[in-house]
Amino acid sequence: MGSGGRKLEPTIPVVAVVGTGVIGRSWALLFARAGCRTRIYDRDPAQLEKALAWLDQNRELISAHEKLADALAGAGYVQESGPEEIEIKKAIYRELDQAADPQAILGSSTSAHDMSEIADGLAGANRCIVAHPVNPPHVIPVVEILPGVKTDPNVVTRTRDFMTSIGQTPVLMNFYVPAFLLNRMQAAVIREAISLVESGVADVDAVDAVIRDGLGLRWALMGPFGVANTNADGGVREYFTRYGEAYKNCMDQLGPTPSFDPELIERLGQGTDAMTGNASRDETLRWRDRLISRIRELKAKDPQP
Amino acid sequence: MGSGGRKLEPTIPVVAVVGTGVIGRSWALLFARAGCRTRIYDRDPAQLEKALAWLDQNRELISAHEKLADALAGAGYVQESGPEEIEIKKAIYRELDQAADPQAILGSSTSAHDMSEIADGLAGANRCIVAHPVNPPHVIPVVEILPGVKTDPNVVTRTRDFMTSIGQTPVLMNFYVPAFLLNRMQAAVIREAISLVESGVADVDAVDAVIRDGLGLRWALMGPFGVANTNADGGVREYFTRYGEAYKNCMDQLGPTPSFDPELIERLGQGTDAMTGNASRDETLRWRDRLISRIRELKAKDPQP
User: To which H or E segment does residue B146 belong?
Assistant: First the structure.
């Protein structure tokens, strides 16, 4: 489904998922669908049970383990999805580095931390890497790959190859920047979107419609450079040469970082309520995941020339 | 096609298209497909011929006119798509206001100018309004609606109703801001995208992949507020309360406005070349329009709950 119907051949046959919250269980589903033997672990047995219930019909290749060492045994790739606190991440990585097979790659779902810091001082720092997914990874293919200063280039290559082999789209960051790539670009849009509502130019629904019935339709197919490249006869060079000054003027007038104070958040909440009505979140999430899978199928069947 | 297969009943049966370049001819196709009698005019007869050739099989409801007055006769809505220079726009609007039927709405495709300025001094300033499409309007539904200070509220309502009736998504701006809504949010993404490439964090293809295989898949369905609303159990209020501080930190560190100097543009050009290979622009545009139409069909058949 998520891979657009292609037959997948994972380059790493046995994987472990450590931490089975919303992100971890989605990784487990993704790995198992791709054909990996998937060993899952959570230090909270109740969380592990919840994940198994959610995985439901997709458990053929999945085994749950009460001890970390059992989950790691034989796994060539480990996906860690624990709490986003640096001291917890460091403690988990100390455990993983001690208990995992020597050749195993230790990938982290962190959206915030630098692997140079998480793996600092570990004997196996060379096999530690960030593999940050978009929620939920079994639906959305991008994975941000961020090596630490000690990560072996071969581990970077193997991680990218593995992600590609299970139908994901790995994107390489050359070094750490706060919030990585995706959340920075998301923050850029959210900042301007909030500014437009806060200043009274337009309401929440109008701003969202500009994305969902406008820019987002192009961005589901091409990123900003691909779009710019199609927006002038002479491609991206002509586009930025012709419109560079206009963009500079516009960019210099974009809105400031909002306060996120309670009054602003409540105003955005009321605007969003007016837009979404009484739709249930679960139903909306199922709809989102269903339609994203169909858009990916369209793209897989009719790829960009 | 563009409307996702719904039967359309235009609220205004006869329209005129003034200026038949890339945007004007796309409007003509959109109007005619929706069932409007569509009268097209360009002061350059060669441009009019080119538009007729492009419209090809879709000319049943379209008539071309060599005189502006003939094109305007009987039209209840006029879509102006002339050059983006304020003095030319003002001159065109003087002509339109003199020659169009008294009840006709005079809509402009301008992406840059304030209708308060274009229509300044006109007897019919109350019927003048910006209706800025995304290129191409027969594929992408968003239309930014921006009244001038003298625009009659009834004209705003009639324009929005008309756009809705032909399958477009009108979004209302309450007052003028430079670059309107869409190009501001696009500029926010482009600024950060360029900054990430320029600083060496990632290459053009990686940055674009984050959008086309990540954020863009969600944004084809929901705008930033809709996405935020689905990203926490408690909706947009919980999301911005929980992540507000993290967003503020991130937003304060986003990249600066780029120089758009020739060296930077060439670097972006080389990155884009490496990403797109030898694909022809025409073929890529046909692919883009085909897939956007299919995404709109998916959304029309399976709308958001």
Answer: strand B142-147
In a domain, A21, yes or no: yes
Q: Is A22's Cβ below 8 Å from some Cβ in B?
A: no
Interface of A with B in 190-219 (CB under 8 A): 190-193, 196, 199-204, 206-219
> What is the rounded CA–CA span in Å between residue B4 and residue B300?
5
CATH of residue A130's domain is 3.40.50.720
- For A170-207, give one letter per residue: b (16+ CB within 10 A) or e: bbbbeebbebbbbbbbbbbbbbbbbbbbeeebbbbbbb
Spatial separation of the C-alpha atoms in residues A103 and B45, rounded to whole Å: 71
Are B166 and B186 in the same domain? Answer: no
Which of A169, A240, A292 is opposite residue B268, by nearest beta carbon?
A240
- Please write the tens of the pLDDT for every residue from A170-220: 999 999 999 999 999 999 999 999 999 999 999 999 999 999 999 999 999
Q: How many Å lie between the alpha carbon of A101 and the closest alpha carbon of chain B? A: 31
Query: pLDDT tens, A35-85?
Result: 999 999 999 999 999 999 999 988 999 999 999 999 999 999 999 999 999
ipTM of the complex: 0.96
| Domain boundary pick from B117, B138, B172 | B172
Instruction: Give B61-65 contacts, CB < 8 A, sequence gap 24+.
Output: B61/B31, B61/B32, B61/B35, B61/B36, B61/B37, B62/B28, B62/B32, B62/B38, B63/B37, B63/B38, B63/B39, B64/B40, B65/B39, B65/B40, B65/B41
| A positions 263-282 inside 8 Å of B (CB) | 265-266, 268-269, 271-272, 275-276, 279-281
- Contact of A247 with B193, CB cutoff 8 Å: no
CA of B167 to nearest chain A CA: how many angstroms apart? 11
Answer whether residue B5 is part of any domain.
no
Task: Assess if residue B8 is contained within a domain.
Answer: no
Buried b (16+ CB within 10 A) or exposed e, A44-71: eeebbebbbeebeeeeebbebbeebeeb
Domain boundary among the residues B172, B191, B221 is at B172
Reported as a single tens digit per residue, the pLDDT across B13-23 is 999 999 999 99
In sequence order, the β-bridge partners of residue B208 are none
Where in the sequence is the domain holding A109, given as residue range(s)? 14-172
- A177 CB neighbours in chain B (<8 A) are 196, 199, 201, 253
